[in-house]
Design a protein that fits this description.
Number of helices: 20
Helix content: 55-70%
Order of helices and strands: HHHEHEHHHHHHEHEHEHHHHHHEEHH
Strand order of the largest sheet: 2-3-4-1-5
Distance between the termini: 52 Å
Amino acid sequence: MTDDLKSVYHLFNPDKALFDEELKKYYVEIGENETRISKLKTRLELGLETEEPIKILFTGHRGSGKSTALNRLVSHLSDKFFVVNYNVLDLLDLNDINYTDVLLSILAQLIESSKVNKIFLRSDLVERANKWGQTITENLISSTKAGLGFGVGLPALINIFTWMKNETETRKEIRKEIGPRVSELISIINDIVIEIEDTGKQVLVIIDNLEKSDPDKALDLFGNHGTQLSQPICKIIYTFPISLKSSDRFTQIRMNFSDDIMYPNIKVHEPDGSVNRESKERALMKEIVAKRVNSNLFEPEALEYIIDMSGGVLRDYIRIIRDSAVTALTRGKTVIDKAVAEEVVNDLKNTFQAQLSDEDYDVLLEVSRSKSIKRDQGLVGLLHNLSVLEYTNGRNWCDLHPIVRTILEEKHLLQQDASSD
């Protein structure tokens, strides 16, 4: 067990999901979350028997631990499925994403995974895919630099993802060419799926970090093109923005998918604001620390405060811990005390406050009063930027992020709201 603050910095990385050996060493099972993952696993395993092309919307707040949970799910299913699990951030610009981008990424990852697993696709299928790609790249080369160094055909189109991510004009041109040919793209995807599944395993595609896309782009992606996203015949898990569950279009979106499963934040307080310091949820958050470093590196009061201010969002919890280690080392301290943690939280408070508009405060006050999830367009952005957090214990409810609550308290808005009731 490590016992210095430098180890805290190295072992608590908010931007890195647990994978492989770290998953085995550091993963902590959290009751409600495990129930949701078990439901997802059961749904997929039942789909093996029926051979349904199940499409799942896997949702939860950014930073709730979805990527780690999906990595663990893959470790349990890889012997039953041909799993294609990829991070869409590696391929696409989530501030400007289109349904054709997603479908093309599925095709690219299926081809790459078949190569890695030494599955040799039929020559006529490869030729058909290349011909489809050649039609697009030849037109693309005439209007952009995209063909330089890449050749033509499907390999060129797949290799061009780097430019798609970084160059807006290239993206627009590719979409313009793919749009009228998207039915053939889906047909090629499906034929490749059939080819892979003929080797003995059904295909499961997991597209991670899609929930981080710009809310308006995500609404267009799932709201206007859910039909196309559901047409590949393999099983697919799409990570989905929790904010869109409060959109008035969610019912329509949901119709194109088999199920939606939420991965909740950890409940660190009750809806009425009361806190049970001995709750099993808080004990599990402390276990996350104890599995990595010596808990004596934290003064007990400081760790309780960090749990409180994280709101049960794992990434925020890990970020506050890591930043507190940096601050403590800078101050020449050997442990993280509450003063250090408060300094870190104050910095995060500035970040949260900068993303709030005047109109947001009215919505935040209503959330503080009602604690209820509603179809409210004003709530969409606040769920997306984590100002409002959703929880579940029997029923779903929401509350202000604790750091956002302190902002309202400092502005005396909560007191004014209480006095007006």
